Amino acid sequence: MWIRGKIFLKEFVEGCINFDRRIKEIRKDCKPDISFPSDALILPGSVDMHVHVRGLELSYKETVTSATSEAIYGGVTTIMDMPNTVPFINSPEKIKERLREFDNYSRTNFGVYSGVTSNSEVEKLPIAGYKVFPEDLEKQELKFVLSSRKLKVLHPEIPLSLNQFRNLRRTWQEIAALDIIKGNFHVTHSTNYETIRISKSKGFTTDFTPHHLLLNGETNCLTKVNPPIRSVTERRKLLRALWEADAIVSDHAPHTQKEKEMPYQLCPPGVAAVSFTTPFIYSLAMKGIISFDRAVELLSINPSKILGIKAGKIEQGYFADFVIIRLSRWRYSTRFSKVIETPFDRYPLDSTIVSVIVQGKIAYDGGEIYPVRGVNAIEDSRH
Questions:
Q1: Which of 136, 251, 321, 380 is catalytic?
Q2: N or C: which terminus of the chain carries fewer CB neighbours within 10 A?
Q3: Cβ-based neighbour number of residue 259 at 10 Å
Q4: 227 belongs to a structural domain
Q5: Domain total for the chain?
Q6: What SS3 class is residue 185?
Q7: Amidohydrolase-related domain: which residues (predicted)?
């Protein structure tokens, strides 16, 4: 297939892309199958390194189909799934079951993380890496994971953080976790600038979330999240992450409306807005707050590089995954997720996603999601 329009190749240029599942050729002129209008911008699909898809026994919260459809609606063409569903994913049998579920139902490309384990058979499977939760920092199995060359993703808090009132989960506990780890680590959902600064000084990569940047504290169950939202001072310092962190993630963590209506002390933490991150970052680029080059780094290039996948660039041999956007004011809401209320509802955005292409096929046309079948990005990138 040939498409034509304004393509992001370090800067926007008029041109054509020829592709099937991978990009085959980029040139100036062609007879396109699809020609996008002059106000549309063709960018690489976004890669979200941190998504809690749910599914399996938690399908009442979100299914693979609903989560990945919502991701497509938000311009995300590749997601990486966290292992803390039911059953927990940290054995060869459960990983294979999880991969089959994604093979059958995912609308995006995907990868899965394993939980901490000492099972050497897990190391042989096409996983994205290991997720290390605070409670894992005291487990014997951590030694095996630390010895692995695969990517490790750290939730940066210490075990103490989980056994006290939420208002006592301080930033020092987040920073303290960094002294326990070593090797190929990525530090996820950093809530303050010091976590990013110290992580990078230790050679780790980092990301942050929109909710830790934008939400004005934890005011109700909708804004309750782990790690907690920090003070206004810390959130203002975290603005530096837009220029200094390696990536931005959604930490999409869906729960039912009934669960979120429980008393604050009992309701489960999590913000479900996988479709918010990409239009938010490109809205900042539209306003000139960050450059498009930096926006593409945060959303596509750097996550792909950290994961070691052939995505995130419009370049020959890379996945034919594209998001097409244009300047248009709208107010955010979810559309395909089972979650119908988020703390970002009605947030004004200037970047509208008009089309998404996954594996060389139209996955979203601005109205409908189509049943495009994603691939295991970790496994497929080896070929």
A1: 251
A2: C
A3: 15
A4: yes
A5: 1
A6: strand
A7: 42-362
Q: Which amino acid is at 22?
A: R
40 assigned to some structural domain: no
Q: What does the pLDDT look like over 5-50, one tens digit per residue?
A: 999 999 999 999 999 999 999 999 999 999 999 999 999 999 999 9
Q: Bridge-partner residues for 351, per DSSP?
A: 327
Q: Residue 172: which CATH number?
A: 3.20.20.140
Whether 366 is in a domain gets the answer: no
Give, in order, the Cα–Cα distances in Å from 152 to each of 63, 112, 155, 222, 248: 25, 12, 10, 29, 17
Is there a contact between 55 and 64 (Cβ–Cβ < 8 Å)? yes
pTM for the full model?
0.97
Residue 254 and residue 269: Cα distance in Å, rounded? 9
Give the residue carrying structure tokens 């054995």: 91
Of 336, 333, 344, 334, nearest to 223 by C-alpha is 344
Question: Residue 145 corresponds to which tokens in the numbers above?
Answer: 């994971």
Q: Is 251 an annotated catalytic residue? A: yes
Instruction: Please tell me the distance from the alpha carbon of residue 373 to that of residue 39, in angstroms, as a whole number.
Output: 29
Residue 92 in any domain: the answer is yes
Q: What angle do CA 88, 93, 99 make, to 5 degrees?
A: 80
Residue 163 corresponds to which amino acid? N
Task: Convert 58-100 into a string of H (helix), E (strand) and C (coil).
Answer: ECCCCCHHHHHHHHHHCCEEEEEECCCCCCCCCCHHHHHHHHH
Contacts with 195 (C-beta within 8 Å, 6 or more apart), sequence order: 156, 171, 174, 175, 178, 187, 206
What's the token pair of residue 267? 């309701």
- Please compute the mean of the pLDDT values over residues 321-332 and round it to a whole number: 97
Q: Which range has the worst mean pLDDT, 54-58, 161-165, 223-227, 245-249?
A: 161-165
Residue 166, domain extent:
45-313
d(C-alpha 90, C-alpha 115), whole Å: 5
